[in-house]
Amino acid sequence: MAKVTPELIRKLRELSGAGMMDCKHALEEADGDVEKAFTVLREKGIAKAAKRAGRATGQGVVEAYLHKTSEDYPPQVGVLVEVNCETDFVAKGQDFRKLARELALQVAATGPRWVTRDDIPDEILVQERNLYERKAEQDGKPEQAIPKIVEGQVEKFIQEHVLMEQAYFREPKRVIKDLIAESISKLQENITVRRFARFNVREE
Amino acid sequence: MAKVTPELIRKLRELSGAGMMDCKHALEEADGDVEKAFTVLREKGIAKAAKRAGRATGQGVVEAYLHKTSEDYPPQVGVLVEVNCETDFVAKGQDFRKLARELALQVAATGPRWVTRDDIPDEILVQERNLYERKAEQDGKPEQAIPKIVEGQVEKFIQEHVLMEQAYFREPKRVIKDLIAESISKLQENITVRRFARFNVREE
Phi and psi at residue B199, in whole multiples of 5°? Predict the structure, then answer.
């Protein structure tokens, strides 16, 4: 029989939210396989964690913004944004809420697709790069200049579609990540944008 | 050379939003391959449609709801919902807005995962079904009773996680799709929930 180590028990507890003894028994039954043990727990109706019901990932706030183009017409664009911080003290403060509000307005105004540049799927970057390359070739640009042209256009694509890299709509010379860096410095806590959603009735 | 039919041109126009002659030329260049022709259009900078910028898909409204558990604490749950209808006349009306509001509150209260039962990925249904089957076996249920038990539990899973099938939080005897059916009947227009998002700071 495989050895059920405290490390395995800890892993399964994090995964399942179940108690220590339940986890130990499930791991014994599953021969030390954490995935199998999780299934065992679920089947026994002990595992508390479904995919969505989850553990705390820190403090923060959810902010919403609905954009109306005229008084008698209902909002056609809506934004939801979640901003996280480290303590409820900061989460409850005016400055933090104000930042979340600005970020919601930013998303409404500019329609970014991702939070950070790391969130862009590789295949999209490859596709964009290929497109710019072929365009530069068709435009008859000198071969040695093409890599630089392409990188410039990829960077432009990122600045357009990634929230953190976008120009702040109120002051286009500032970038959103700098806006957040200022709040971090002021509030003395790490602040992250966890996710956003933007619905537009007019878009597919 | 492949024949460029009106059908192909129509398809490419829908895909790209480009003009008829541009589409015809692109299809000729791509030997009648719509995908290739779309790339040709994009490369030439003619295709107007990016993935997100899109054509109208009807009328509607975006509604938001932020849930506060206490006055001095910022919202920890936020919901965005898009509800569509056929005409702006209905979209502008009080009844339609009220329905969208109720749906946002419903999503906040119950946290559904999908809009309709058709939106549940097949692998999730298979996984749930297997789980219920094994559970019934372990519980020593008679073999011929198991299919019926399993189907009942799958139906319960759907009623819990699918917005349209959920019990309405204000009147648990009514189901959300009946609530919408009543609005359809009253407003004499088709009404659909296009999408929703629900963020909870406390959840993974």
Answer: -110, 135
